[in-house]
Amino acid sequence: MDSAVDPADVHAAAFVEENELFATLAASADLTTQVPTCPDWTLKQLFRHVGRGDRWAATIVRTGEPADPREVADGRPPEGGLVDWLRGGPRAVLDAVAEVGPDTPVWTFTGPQPASWWVRRREHEVLVHRADAAFALGVDYPLPPDRAADGLSEYLGLLTARKPDPADPPLADGATVHLHATEEIGPAGEWMIRGAEGGVVWEHGHGKGDVAVRGPAVDLLLVMMGRRPSDSVETIGDASVWERWLAHSGF
Predict the structure, then answer these.
(1) CA torsion sign, 207 to 211 to 213 to 214?
(2) Helices vs strands, H then E, count in the chain
(3) Mind listing the pLDDT tens digit for each residue in 20-35?
(4) Is there a single domain that holds both residue 41 and residue 101?
């Protein structure tokens, strides 16, 4: 990323773009279609989940406090207005951030964060759910490698903030996983993850892990998120470490 480009602007633009691609899928979809990667959901439920989630995030930003997603204003699409309602989600979040100021601390499920934190979070929420919709509809899922890599980094940040069950952690203390995107995207395309005191820590970088996992950034992300099978990427070393990670690192 060009150092002269404000990362906040990059995430805001990506959030709007991802949501537009998502809304476009909704425009011609049979909303009763089942979503295989979100068991028991239909596309109607998936689209509503994302649109309501945007309003939920906007409410949190404006108040600074947690909110009940079932009670947020405009939390359901109007009859016949699903696509426009979805397109309004990013605007609700971005307007809320501009209103309170991007650096204003607000509630998040990782502890207090700047209001702008929610822009990146919602960007990657819709990014992954766009994959769910695309797979349900049997259409292509284009995703730039650098955006997929940032999605993986963002998810690892959520995991490190979580307090897992110390008796059943995703990685044993000292166990390591090295992820390596096969595209040329520089340091942002490699991750070292290590079990530490019942939780996990990570950093960008190259190193020898108990298991190395290689593949296109989008495949690494979607396997990590449980949207593709583990054999969609190449593993070198102790595959059981990777399988344990996948089985214990979901939300």
Answers:
(1) positive
(2) 7, 7
(3) 999 999 999 999 999 9
(4) yes
